[in-house]
Amino acid sequence: MVNSVFGAAGTSIFESMSRLAAETGAINLGQGFPEGFVPAALVEAAISALRDGPHQYPPMMGLPVLRQAVADNAKRFFNLDIDWQREVLVTSGATEALADTFLALLETGDEVILFEPVYDAYATLIRRAGGVVVPVRLLPPHWDLPQDALQNAITSKTKLIVVNTPMNPIGKIFSPEELRFLGELAVKHDLTIVSDEVYEHLVFDGRPFHSLFAVDGIRDRVVRIGSAGKSFSVTGWKVGYVTASPKLLEPIARAHQYVTFTTPPALQAAVATGLNLPDNYFLDLRRQLAERRDLLVDGLRDAGFEVADAPATYFVVADISTLDTAGDDLAFCRRLTLEAGVTPVPISSFYGSRDVRSHVRFCFAKKAETLVNAVERLALWRQGHAVKVAS
Fold first, then answer.
1. Pairing of β 132-137 and β 111-116
2. pLDDT per residue over 226-249, tens digit each?
């Protein structure tokens, strides 16, 4: 027998579409792993740390140099005042940070509100921690926060609200007004907000990013989660961090102690170097990603896709209603992989009911030549020409 939660989870859509892309030689714009953005200083710092050591267990809470860098970076860019000694924990990736948080804060039967479309790990981790998922849906084309539906979803059993801003898969940045509304609900109903802010540095066109940690009156109710993988394009390193008040961080740290205990010290030291890089690194990363976004968006629109603005993250979302008469975004993604040699992922996979089937997600955090090749293939496909791909 296996655990019912993980037994029912199956293979993620990202893994299955990536496998199909690899098998067919398609360009994989489905999974959100970046190409060509890793800062050289980060790699050199990791090499130096690997050479010099130490190589044994680092402190369970994380290297002091990294915890202080997390706090300093948040102050520099978002004007957040954080006590690194009492309010910062290093984890083996943001997904572990989420798992630790849910394990630490949930009792069996506690309800957790999620905003769909939603990163698939949330619901599985919540259920395994004994929580009950309560979805609140954001819908195209504007993806506005449904305030009435959210208020109606709160019950006496509600414990947490999980917010992802900027939001995967749709790139939505929650506005200050929306964040204040969430804060008012948290105070009114005595709730904790888990704020997944891993894309905090991937906001474009001069737009500001606002953290829930800065909303007046709720700082002690917010668990803020960050990711070196997203900020430095090193998704394979799996270095994340949690920022929270001591009353929340202490139980989360105890969960972390029994999940991974700690994270490779050389990678922690290198990420500290990254967080302390000059402002120009972070500004240039935004500029480069915005350029890649524009390259992909223009190509998709030329190929007949209806593409909304993409203010943040790695992703653009395309409305395929006029291209897919069958109304099946998963089948459309497989068809595009086989016929055009380009792989997106279906937005329906980010909804529990899988019934919003009008949109697909493309990742633009790729090399320029990769994106040029992809849009050329899509243009040929729209013109009815066969696309030859390597198998």
1. parallel
2. 999 999 999 999 999 999 999 999
**Burial class, 2, CB count within 10 angstroms (exposed 0-12 / middle 13-18 / buried 19+):** exposed
For residue 386, what pLDDT is reported? 63
> Of the residues 219, 254, 276, which one is the last residue of a structural domain?
276
Count CA atoms within 13 Å of residue 196 on its CB side.
26
Residue matched to tokens 């769909």: 116
Report if residue 14 sits inside a domain: yes
- Rounded distance, CA 77 to CA 382, Å? 43
Any idea what the CATH number is for the domain that residue 16 is in? 3.90.1150.10
Q: Which two tokens stand for residue 237?
A: 């390193």
Tokens 């790139």 found at? 171
Distance CA 314, CA 171 (A): 8
Q: Which element (helix H / strand E) includes 243? A: strand 240-243
Number of C-beta neighbours around residue 162 at 10 A: 25
| CA–CA dist 27, 8 (Å, integer) | 29
pLDDT tens-digit profile of 105-115?
999 999 999 99
Q: Model pTM?
A: 0.95
